[in-house]
Specification:
Strand content: 5-15%
Bound molecules: (2S,3S)-3-hydroxy-2-methylbutanoyl-COA
Oligomer: single chain
Largest sheet: 8 strands, mixed
Radius of gyration: 28 Å
Strand order of the largest sheet: 12-11-10-13-14-15-16-17
Number of strands: 19
Distance between the termini: 51 Å
Structural class: alpha/beta
């Protein structure tokens, strides 16, 4: 908007209103408009200045779309310092979410009020940044060091009441923010309250151990990231430097983070996540079907987790199993999951009971007749899935959406057994479905537009991150994961050991190494899936000789106490197993492979570039819409390092020419035995 900041005087109060939809981001126009309007307000005969926002939220931060471009005056720190230096008291009134630079505006004002429903936060760390407009210096001056460190290194917003208790907000109103804020301003005037500069407050001193402790915690929680550690440095500086010097130190650290490849990667993911929910050829006005009730077929690990995801947001669920015993087992797992969350203090007993109460078991398909959405979540047997869809076609009401949670199978073939393929699609959840945020929405050849649009909206409703895939074996995530795991297996035969492959990919930033992941998923799962494949799809099985030998020896991975590693029955801690080393070396010998030392860099490139190579094929075939969609799949479904931006962004950063040259070299040296 050309004039996103307006001004009017109400009584003695100069009211500044920011109106820059959709989230009142601090664009250049907003910064200029606010700076100029504050100058006008200081010059007129109002006694006090109130800054508020129009629309659904207070300022949600700097305009991320401007990052990476040459910064233009006025810079946000300068605008906020002008506000703090106002000779008239300045009040900010928060609704919605005051985040990042938006909350830094609040901190630079002299008095702060908010609606009880509002939240405030400093989420810059999720963008590989730190609060760069005084936030690292003003927050500890109001809330103390430890609260400031938690707010900025977690990036998690807090409700207004909690912010008030921490000293970050002065007044909380239940409703009528403008009316209450105006009355409060008049009262402050009547009480003769003048400007109170946060920057002039002292930072409560803490023991140096607080900063060491914060760094140790971050070494685990934010492994490999830069910004969280720079936040600790800035807060530490606030304890020993006057505000101007501390603010200068903050600006230097902010500039380093802004210029970092990590921040570019994390800013890419911010927009990629929002793009992934948009389908290019879907008209914006596509109607949506109502999803008021859901049925889930199969009360196993996946079905139970899916049922919980729905119940957790208030959607009633019918959970169908073949018999009462299976249902009882399923509910046992569900109740156990809720009990664990209650025990961790993350859920009240009452709320857990309410959620559990929304899931009703049945063994009778007739009970699914009224469900708006049915999600089949039985094991990966294509014929069983088709049988179930034929049954659903008979019993479900017209307009019900029929989804399969299959990880690999042909969604079109499953839809094809019904008389309503337009109502069918894939909803591929990731295990554990009540925890993992990724939901692959698999668009069938005949899936109706409104079914697809409804599925995407449903994903957001149950707090998942949707990514749309077309039908192929493994869709996006699993199809790419196969060559990734294949390369890891090949490295074992060529000379590496499970712990060296895993260490290399863990250091790269993966949440878990590929061998450990294989043990976690169950070696038999991959084994059965591969054995069920037709020859031309399966490719050369040689790389899996070790894994298959382990399965045939009953070593299925974590679930059987041993796979590539052995697992402590109590702690599930993994330990290398000399027996597995012997098996690996024997397999190398049988295959006539002379084992060699393999460096971490080659191991990372072999595995990650295999991901990238398959991702490029997926884009080429139109299975995924955008490279960013693939990055989102890998961030939320496979624990890809957030500060690397996802496999496709990472490939762009290292250079696609380099990736291509290395992939060609690897294929020449080690064979490209992946399926065609
Ligand atoms: N800048 C630019 N665009 C933004 C934006 C921002 N800060 N926040 C949201 N958008 C766009 C978003 O891309 C989408 O666009 C639309 O707004 C709705 O967003 C100096 C340096 C506020 C909780 O990190 O957390 O301040 O897809 O779908 O689910 O220290 O947006 O419609 O075209 O997410 O209701 C710090 C980021 C910035 C907050 C609303 N602030 N935003 O969630 O809507 S860095 C943030 C959010 C900074 C200072 C530093 C969420 C939200 P489109 P949405 P939502």
């Amino acid at each position: 908007m050309s004039h996103p900041v307006s001004y009017r005087v109400v009584g003695n109060v100069g009211v500044v209103t920011i109106d820059n939809p959709p989230v009142n981001a601090f664009s250049l126009a907003v910064r200029k408009g606010l700076n100029d309007t504050i100058s006008d307000a200081i010059a007129d005969d109002s006694g006090i200045i109130l800054i508020a926002c129009a629309g659904r939220t207070f300022v949600a931060g700097a305009d991320i779309s401007e990052f990476g471009k040459p910064p233009e005056d006025p810079w946000l720190p300068e605008v906020l310092d002008n506000i703090e230096n106002s000779p008239k008291p300045v009040v900010t009134a928060v609704h919605g979410t005051a985040l990042g630079g938006g909350f830094e505006l609040v901190l630079a004002s002299h008095y702060r009020c908010a609606l009880a429903s509002a939240k405030v936060g400093l989420p810059e760390v999720h963008l590989g940044l730190l609060p760069g407009a005084g936030g690292t210096q003003r927050t500890p001056r109001l809330a103390g060091v430890e609260a400031a460190l938690e707010l900025m290194t977690s990036g998690r917003p807090i409700p207004a009441g909690k912010a008030q208790a921490a000293g970050l907000i002065d007044e909380v109103f239940d409703d009528d923010l403008e009316g209450n804020a105006l009355r409060w301003c008049e009262q402050l005037l009547a009480d003769g309250k003048g400007p109170v500069k946060v920057s002039e407050k002292a930072v409560p001193q803490v023991d140096a151990a607080v900063f060491d402790g914060a760094r140790q915690l971050l070494a685990k929680r934010a492994r490999g990231q830069l910004a969280p550690f720079r936040i600790v440095d800035c807060v530490e500086a606030a304890t020993r430097l006057p505000y101007p010097q501390g603010a200068e130190f903050e600006r230097e650290q902010f500039a380093e983070c802004m210029a970092s490849p990590q921040s570019a990667a994390m800013r890419h993911l911010f927009f990629a996540e929002r793009q992934a929910a948009k389908v290019r050829d879907l008209p914006k006005d596509t109607s949506l079907r109502n999803i008021r009730s859901v049925a889930v077929i199969g009360a196993g690990t996946m079905g139970g987790g899916i049922a919980m995801s729905c119940a957790n947001v208030g959607i009633p669920v019918k959970l169908l199993e073949v018999d009462a015993a299976a249902l009882e087992r399923g509910f046992g797992v569900i109740e156990g999951n809720y009990a664990k969350t209650v025990k961790k203090g993350r859920l009240s007993q009452e709320e857990a009971a309410a959620r559990r109460g929304r899931i009703e078991g049945t063994t009778d398909y007739a009970d699914l007749a009224d469900a708006d959405l049915v999600i089949e979540a039985v094991f990966e047997d294509p014929e069983l899935k088709k049988t179930i869809f034929r049954k659903l076609d008979e019993v479900c009401k017209p307009g019900a959406i029929l989804a399969t949670n299959t990880s690999y199978q042909d969604v079109d073939a499953i839809a094809g057994v019904t008389n309503r393929p337009g109502d069918c699609l894939g909803l591929h959840f990731f295990s554990p479905a009540n925890v993992m945020k990724l939901l692959e929405v698999v668009r069938g050849a005949k899936t109706d537009d409104d079914v697809l649009a409804t599925a995407i909206r449903f994903a957001k409703t149950i707090r998942k991150v949707p990514a749309v895939a077309r039908v192929c074996y493994g869709f996006i995530g699993n199809r790419m994961f196969n060559p990734y795991i294949r390369e890891a297996q090949k490295l074992l035969i060529e000379g590496a050991l499970p712990e060296t492959v895993d260490a290399a990919l863990y250091e790269f930033g993966m949440a878990m190494g590929p061998i450990a992941v294989s043990d976690l998923a169950g070696l038999d799962v991959g084994y059965k899936a591969r054995m069920a494949l037709p020859e031309e799809v399966r490719g050369d099985d040689t790389p899996f000789k070790v894994a298959d030998a382990l399965v045939e020896a009953g070593r299925l991975g974590q679930k059987s106490g041993a796979g590539f590693y052995t697992y402590d029955p109590e702690t599930r801690r993994a330990s290398p197993d000399p027996e597995v080393v012997t098996l690996i070396e024997k397999t190398s010998a049988e295959l006539g492979v002379e084992r060699r030392d393999i460096g971490a860099e080659e191991m990372v490139e072999r595995c990650v570039f295999a991901l990238v190579n398959e991702g490029l094929k997926i884009l080429d075939e139109g299975i995924a819409q955008r490279p960013g969609d693939i990055d989102i799949v890998y961030l939320y479904g496979y624990g890809f390092a957030v500060h690397r931006g996802g496999p496709m962004f990472y490939a762009d950063q290292v250079g696609l020419d380099h990736v291509l040259a290395r992939v060609r070299e690897f294929h020449e040296r080690f064979g490209s035995d992946a399926p065609a």
